[in-house]
């Protein structure tokens, strides 16, 4: 090439700037591909990607209209999935839904689908699984660890102490001194 000649134009560098609405639509569809998300999560994502608020709101309204964004369905699926996979109790699930931006009433309706028996069964499975790793640990330390584990997952103390006491007894371990706290 001679010094005074310009290189040929690069066709890729001459792509017109993308329409903000189509960019936002692509962002939303990509985000919804992996798993369902709450409307609040999607709005936050659009804001982080510098999508104008009015475009984001219009698209989120449209996605809600056609059923791609549904906080009630999201909350129900989240509650069922997290309760089964992580053994989380109602309180912990409510906190997670709040962090996801789900309305308290919608979250309450989703949490009401959990049966108390399911919550207790999940607590028992967690304790039974953890007990296997506590074979060499003295009973008082095992009690503290088991109760702490259930408390971190949002289980109420009355259920925590009852389940720990019963599972320790079933495993032939001493649960003496494990009384429910008095207020």
UniProtKB/TrEMBL annotation:
Belongs to the RecX family. Keywords: Cytoplasm. Residues 1-21 are annotated as: Disordered. Residues 1-10 have a biased composition (Pro residues). HAMAP family: RecX. The gene is recX. It comes from Nocardioides massiliensis. Its main location: cytoplasm. This is Regulatory protein RecX.
């Amino acid at each position: 090439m001679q010094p005074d000649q310009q290189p040929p134009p690069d066709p890729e560098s001459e792509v017109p700037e993308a329409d903000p609405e189509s960019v936002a639509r692509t962002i939303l569809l990509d985000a919804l591909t992996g798993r369902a998300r709450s409307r609040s999560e999607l709005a936050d994502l659009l804001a982080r990607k510098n999508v104008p608020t009015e475009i984001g709101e219009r698209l989120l309204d449209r996605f809600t209209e056609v059923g791609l964004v549904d906080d009630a369905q999201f909350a129900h699926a989240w509650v069922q999935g997290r309760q089964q996979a992580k053994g989380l109790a109602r309180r912990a699930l409510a906190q997670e839904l709040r962090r996801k931006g789900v309305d308290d009433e919608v979250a309450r309706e989703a949490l009401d689908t959990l049966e108390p028996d399911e919550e207790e069964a999940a607590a028992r499975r967690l304790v039974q699984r953890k007990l296997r790793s506590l074979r060499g640990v003295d009973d008082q330390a095992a009690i503290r660890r088991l109760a702490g584990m259930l408390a971190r997952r949002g289980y109420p103390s009355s259920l925590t102490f009852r389940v720990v006491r019963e599972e320790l007894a079933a495993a032939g371990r001493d649960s003496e001194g494990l009384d429910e706290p008095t207020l």
